[in-house]
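Example: Methanethiol oxidase.
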Amino acid sequence: MGEEVACCKRTGPGYGTPLEAMSGPKEALMYVTCVYNGTGREKPDFLATVDVDPNSPTYSKVIHRLSLPYIGDELHHTGWNACSSCHGDPSSDRRFLILPSLLSGRIYVIDTQKNPKAPSLHKVVEPEHIIEKTGLAYPHTSHCLANGEIMISFLGDKDGNAQGNGFLLLDSQFNIKGRWEKPGRKAEFSYDFWYQPRHKTMICSTFGAPSAFTQGFTLKHVEDGFYGRQLSVYDWPDGRLKQTLDLGDNGLIPGEIRFLHDPTKDTGYVECILSSNMVRFFKTQDGSSWSHEVAISVKPLKVQNWILPEMPGLIIGLLISLDDRFLYFVNWFHGDVRQYNIEDPKNPILVGQVYVGGLLQKGQPHNSSHRRW
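Written out as structure tokens, the predicted fold is:
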């Protein structure tokens, strides 16, 4: 592997999704997961630190690789131990990254404060303890709550059923508190969730992961649009379903969700993996409901020696900078990371692009040598 972001050159989704970027007076870094499932590497590195300071001599290069103790874990998504309720609070602590491992069920807690350029493993929450206390399996996405607790979504249960509605609570020391459920309410959350505590709203993308489970998922669900193209809007924290947003064919398949960090703006984005669109969702003018529109579309590229003359994109990773100025996403098939200025949410502007390699290595996209940030 070279020293550029080429650590992301792998052969499947999750290989190099930019998870979170941190910006401060001293550091401008991006933490990237690298999946080594099935490669047989003796000391796999699961988290790479990338320098994203344009004034640095190591700009857009990997400056540290963190090795974790178990071969085969897949770290796809992460959350900071901080939330939108901390927006504008200089005392808010963004010290820890929470990384669920979908297949093994472990939850890794990574300390980025001791040495931001070389993060370290702080704690591992073992799957047997999670199953014993909650019956949940396949942890997927994590976010912190305003009270400092950590909330993690689970795509299934210990028997391999694709429930898509289980949540684990960890306390501020990352000890297991139990499940988050309200009596008589069983919300059907799934792939990703995001909430605005000041506006008492949680929005979730509903998309199953059938290959990971033995039961609970059918193609009929996709045909009905249940998994394939909808967002669910819930009251927070009571879990009452308020609205369902059908994103249509332009919204296939909704994955990661991010609200803007400033909760007064009432807007967010969801990556639509299959349709290769970034959809913006927002409150209507009267404030009574939510609406949506396509904000960014990935155009197909002409390639050679491939199964199709033009290859669409496949968006698999999304983050928004802490100051809400920039949106980043990974376009898997085209093998690039894109940076958009979203200060005007209705007019996102492409301001940076880094080609890191992808499935189009088999052919050559017409501008594959293009690298800029």
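The chain is about 5% helix and 40% strand.
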